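Bug #77: duplicate submission created two jobs. Keeping one. Sequence:
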Amino acid sequence: MKELFEEISLNHLTLKNRLVRSATWEGIAADDGSIDERTYRIYEELAAGGVGAIVTGFTSVSDNDFYFDGMMRLSHDELIPQYKKLTDIIHSYGVPAISQLALGAFYRTHGGRGFLQVDPDDMTREEIELVEKQFAEAARRAAEAGFDGVQIHAAHFFFLSQFISPVVNHRSDTYGGSTENRARIVREILSKIRETTPNLHVSVKINSSDFTQGGLTEEESIEICKLLSADGIDSIEVSGNGTSVGGIRAGVNEAYFAPFASWLSDEVKTPVICVGGFRSRSVMEEVLNKSNIALISLSRPLVREPNFPKKLQAGKSEVSKCVSCNGCYSSYMHRCVFLKEGEK
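Kept job's structure:
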């Protein structure tokens, strides 16, 4: 029987419990990816709150990624000391830190005067190789900054998610067409990260489905995950193209990605992490013990209560205070709109 609050060891990673803070957008970094005391405070709250591991928010691998403002970046070496301070804070609470490496979109120099967003279909082989190199170099910087692992972000219809989706990728070369070909870029990124930083835990976040006509299906997602598992990916976090469902109620409609994650956990030996609508300890434990799912990841409940894991473990709470209003999305630093200053 799996216990929510028991130590678990994965490749290159040991967690004090089975709860993971899923990467959550803060949107407060400077244009160059620099971070300040606001970011440090957020992550110290989370680390002190009792979670087993933390995946930091969307971190672009490129200086020339203009998908949205406020992105953290590991795109040049000058940023390493700032992120080393971040991992030192997280580690001081005995919590492993994983950097979510991502690319919002690929931008090509345009006429020497700016940048133009380029779709996967129109990228050259050299540009694909550049993206793969950017991920590997960002992983190297993550390791030098003290991160215990990295997560390849291939979900939520950002660049890699689009690249592996048949509704976007219509290439006719070895990077398009079949499921295996469309997944090639993610597999090559994994290989290059392994070559660059062999001691990092390498995870991937992937859509269970694109929930779009002609997009990635559950069957294709399983196939891609099997390929990555065979390549030695260390963990797989299951998400989907329709995240953060509103109106989640404890014991009623929790764990909306659990059916797919359970299916996947039967198909691969790789540890599977399930995110999506968890609000109660009873449902978390039920999902863990009625499937081969290894870990539960949380986002909005930890926005509302960074110390939710400690409350669960101490028996002071059984259900999250999060009401799934999604008001945090429009708030400054994506904080809970109901959280009062100083509230614990």
